Structures are given as structure tokens and as C-alpha cells.
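Reopening this ticket.

The earlier resolution said the output was attached, but the attachment link was broken on my side. Pasting everything inline this time so it's all in one place.
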Amino acid sequence: MEKKKWSISILALVFVMAFHLLPAEPGAQEVLKIGMVAPLSGPGAPWGAVWKKTASLEQEKINAAGGLPVGGKNYKIEFIFEDDKYSGAAGRMAAEKLIFKDKVKFIVGPISSASRQAWQEISKANNIVACGNTYTRGVMGPDHPDFFRPSVTGVEQAPCYYKIITEKYPQMKKVAIINRSDVTGKDSVKDSRRSAKYFGFQILTEEFYEPGTKDFYPLLTRVLAKAPEMIDFGSSSAGDIFLMVKQSRELGFTGRTMSLALLPVKEFCAVAGKKNAEGHIYNVMAPPFMTPAALEYEKEYVKRFGEWDEYAPKARAYTNALLQGIIRTKSIDPLQVRKTMAGMEWEELDGAYKFTCQWTYGVPHQGLSPFYFTEVRNGENVCLEVKDVRWVEALTRKYEEEAPPEK
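Inline output:
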């Protein structure tokens, strides 16, 4: 009996040893989880949907090619998408889930300043690298070493808009400014006001609306009574801009409209009306100045999702900047990736980008990129002029020195 027990024990030990000595499954890869905090519902959903699509496409392409090359290894990419509903409370919940449950160290997002402010201290304390948007100065600086912003904000965009507008439409000098009454909107109004004054515009009125507003007629009636030649909707969310443009035209406004926010032109024209959207100004790459890389990407995007989103090249930049930082670092250590990304220069679909603007924020974490001065014409985007990143950097640095922000 004892011999039988010993025989069974020896056989079991041999089996366990053999199992552990078996070669790893062919093709097995380590997985790099990356979180995304974006508005997949609510007023920012038109932007968040494109962020999710572009990240999903990058994940598919990278994994199909064998993974993300990092320091001699190839990592399978896995994005985990969380909806912040374009709000602070939902943003905090999304980030906490990603950081504490999913154990991610890299996050793409958010778009909303309220969302970012709700979880920026958690991100900092847990050594995260976050690569997002937002239009608020307060989310970036030496106190927030974890945050990088590839795309321009109102601080950098507004002077570009107003300079080109003064050159192309010198007769326009009276502007009304409208934005949301949240932190993003209030900061954006400061940016528009500062640039408008710097370039000699007369600001007739500044108006704020509550998030969730659908009936803008009372507000727009007050604004139009001032007889503006242009309305600057700043960083208002896409859905709100659609409605404000529509309702302002219904009230008889015939002047120009513009926004610092990018808009999906098909949805814009569908909601606001093609005729009402005519002449709207924003910064988005469009014909005839599409780059070869963007044209190739458009084919891939349409094949995968069925239709093109003009915002896709900008949306992709948030994911790609982070991935470039990881690849160049040759490590998935977030603290090392931060060092690499500070001051990093890289190529995007719409041209050369660089993290810089330390003269504004104290750290070179703010991205600058080419500026595409584009109008809606007959339901399509038509780019009238492109300024490269060197022009944008020179203008915004000079502007920052000569037009200091409000205290």
C-alpha cells in the first residue's frame, strides 16, 4: 500500500514538472491595457464616438501587425472604454474604475475639463500618463506632471483664428461671444475675449448658457439685438453649436459663425440645416489640403466604419501621441514615458506636432499643430488656408508675451 502511494506521488510530481517545462503557447503576448475616458453619451458624444473609433482602429492595426514594439517586446494592445458623459462626476467614476479595478497606467482622455479636474489628483497620485484634451489652463503645469495635451486649446487657437479673420474679412469687427457656463466655457470665453481685443475687435456681449439647454431663442434674441457681425461659440459642445446656429439663423442672423470646437460637418448640416451652416469657420483639415497620409487613413476608416469623420485625424492624435511616447521610451514605465513625451516632436495625419508652450504652462506638455482655416461651403468643409506648426508657435508665443492673460 505504501509503495503504491509513493508511486502515485512520484507520478504526480513528474506530471507537474513536465507541465511547467512545456514551451509557452506560440504567439502568446503580454497585454498592455490602455484606458479611455471620453463622452460616449451626452453633449460631447459626437467627439467621443470618433475618439473610440480611432483608438479601436489603431488597436486592430497594431495587434494585426504583431503588437506594439516596446523595448524588444511586442505588446498586444487592449483599450478599455469608459463613458464620462462629458461631466465631472461620471469622469471621476470612469477614471477610478480604470485605475483601481483595471490597473491601467495609461489613459487617453478626457475631452471635458470638468471630467479632468474631477480625477486629476487621482491620476497624479497613481503615476498615470494621461493624454487628453480640455480647454482649461488649470489642468496643466508643474503641479500636473501626468497630463499631456496634443491638440491646441483656446489659448493657442483663438489668436490664430482672429489673426486670419482680420486678414480675410477686414470689414468684420463686431463680435458676440457665447459659451457654456461650466469651467471649460468660462475659460474659453477668456481666450476669445483676449484674442478679439488683441486684434482690434469690438466685443458686443458675452453670454453663458446652462449645460443641457435646448431652447436658445431667448439668449440669441438678446445677442442679436446687439447687431453682431460674427458669433464666436468658442468651445461649446458640438450638439449645442448645431442648435445655436440653427436657431440664430431662424431669428434672422446673417453674419458669420465660428467655433474653436471641431464639428462633424454631416451631422452639423443635418441638425442646423445645410444653408444655416454655410460659412461656419473652424480649424479642421479639409480639401484641398488633405495630406497623403490623411487620404490613406480616410480609406481605412471608411472601410472599417462606413463613413468619414473630419474630426478623425485630430481624435487619433491623442492615442497616437501616447503610443509614440511608449515606443520611444522602450518601456511601459509611466514615469519614464512622461520624460520622453515632454518636448516630443512627432508626425500626425495633418502634419508635424510638438509638445512645447513651457512659456505658458511651465512645462512642455502642450501640443502645437498645423492650423487649418476651414469654412463650411455647400454642406462640405473647404480649407482656405493652412499654417504650419512653426507659424502657430511663433504667433502664440508672441501673443502670450504681448497679451498677458487675465488674473
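Reporter confirms the inline version is readable. The chain has two domains: 31-153+291-371, 154-289+374-402. The first strand starts at residue 31 and ends at 38.
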